[in-house]
Design brief:
Elements: E1 50-69, E2 72-91, E3 100-119, E4 125-135, E5 139-148, E6 151-160, E7 170-172, E8 177-179, E9 189-199, E10 205-216, E11 229-239, E12 244-255, H1 262-271, E13 279-293, E14 296-311, E15 315-326
Antiparallel strand pairs: 1-2, 1-15, 2-3, 3-4, 3-5, 5-6, 6-9, 7-8, 9-10, 10-11, 11-12, 12-13, 13-14, 14-15
């Protein structure tokens, strides 16, 4: 059974669990398929017909006191992960059901570093490290957007395909090396989402909110069923006439039920936890800038999120940057 093998896997790679005396791993590997914080400013605004390319880079610094995996009890866990997402969006000319249809293909690449202490049942203890890079799970997101005056909303469904790097955890005790990082979830998942944006062009005030739920298949390799995960994301942004905008963005994460399967039962048995449900919130500043180079529209975004009140997950500091180019 692997518990932490998918720590920086994306779609995310972003978060893992915090294990205390009353806590244990939530979603398998500590992360869901959907990366919280992926939707913020203008999330409810469907792009006009055209082709778009976006680079999103997320850097996460995380820590957890304890973590069980493959008969080991890991302690003093620290991690750093950089997730680079290449997004290709095509917004179509013909309308569908009165809305603007578009589709996005996301290709994630993850670089992760993990350090921890290990303690075996036979009394061996010592430090371990793991540094790896690899592809995450491909994501396809069909969406349909609608506009009415100052109000804009999008219906989308992200489909996560199990194409990323995935291997069971292994340990080389004499060399104090571990292979615990995987970048694929080894299961299909879908994330239906509704996003809404209210944007007043006169005042420049933008209010955006989105809500989605991630439904995952069971990981047959580990017999671990991750329970549904709800993510609510919000942003309040003031746009200026010079192209800059600034404000606050945040999100709240909550599992709706307990994880199941023999993999989850093993975690409960190892830690004595009664529940594996995870929750977390995060908030921080966001700055965007929109401009043009000739006929090419370019937008940039910088955001910092500090997570808090995490249960059975890592608490992370997340710095992200985005560059969008319209063709």
């Amino acid at each position: 059974m692997t518990i932490f093998q998918s720590f920086v896997r994306l779609s995310l790679a972003t978060t893992a669990l915090a294990l205390g005396s009353q806590a244990a791993l939530a979603v398998e590997g500590g992360t869901g398929a959907y990366l919280p914080g992926s939707r913020d400013s203008m999330a409810g605004f469907a792009p006009p017909p055209g082709s778009y390319f976006t680079i999103d880079v997320f850097h996460l610094e995380s820590q957890a006191p304890f973590l069980p995996i493959h008969g080991l009890v890991l302690s003093d866990v620290t991690s750093a992960a950089t997730v680079t997402k290449l997004n290709f969006t095509q917004s179509f000319t013909d309308q569908l059901w009165g809305g603007q249809p578009y589709m996005t293909l996301t290709i994630p690449y993850v670089t992760g570093s993990l350090s921890f202490a290990g303690e075996l049942a036979n009394g061996f203890s010592g430090g371990f490290t793991d540094d790896q890079s690899g592809m995450g799970d491909l994501t396809i997101t069909p969406a349909l957007g609608f506009h009415s005056g100052k109000n804009h909303w999008v219906y989308a469904a992200s489909i996560f395909a199990p194409t990323g790097y995935y291997e069971p955890a292994t340990f080389d005790i004499p060399a104090r090396q571990a292979n615990v990082l995987s970048f694929g979830k080894n299961r299909w998942a879908i994330n239906p989402t509704i996003a809404y944006t209210h944007f007043d062009m006169t005042t420049g005030l933008e209010l955006t909110a989105s809500g989605g739920i991630t439904l995952s298949q069971k990981n047959k390799t580990t017999d671990y069923q991750t329970a549904p995960e709800i993510v609510i994301e919000m942003a309040a942004v003031q746009h200026l006439k010079n192209g800059f905008a600034f404000g606050l963005a945040g999100y709240a994460y909550q599992q709706t039920a307990d994880d199941s399967g023999t993999g989850a039962d093993g975690v409960r048995g190892l830690t004595g936890a009664k529940s594996l449900q995870a929750s977390m919130q995060g908030v921080g500043p966001i700055v965007t800038y929109n401009t043009k180079f000739g006929d090419t529209a370019v937008s940039m975004k910088l955001k910092y999120i500090q997570e808090s009140n995490a249960k059975r997950r890592f608490e992370s500091n997340v710095l992200s940057a985005s560059l969008n180019i319209t063709f």
